[in-house]
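pinned: reference chain
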Amino acid sequence: MKDGWHNDDHFILFESHEEATAATGRYRLSEYLPGYFAVGLKGWDDFILCDANAKYFTIPTVPLSKEEIRPYSFPAETLKLKADVRFRNTNQPTEPTAKAAAHR
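pinned: its structure tokens
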């Protein structure tokens, strides 16, 4: 998964088929939107989906309603994301914790 900014939009993109399949299952998209799988999120509010014909769509994450699906021109091949230094992976501490340092 990678995330970052492109112009004024923040994207979270699932980089592999495995990530896309896992996200599709995690969000139970197959139940509500059969034939689509998750490619990522745009602006935290919209899923980016792809269908069997490799066409892209967006749909609000809440409420998830098929009537809200919209075609989306997604520049997947040329999209260059810029990291946002305000956000970082919280699973990777920048400094050793006191507990970890005591076990050295």
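why pinned: The chain has a mean pLDDT of 78. The chain is about 20% helix and 30% strand.
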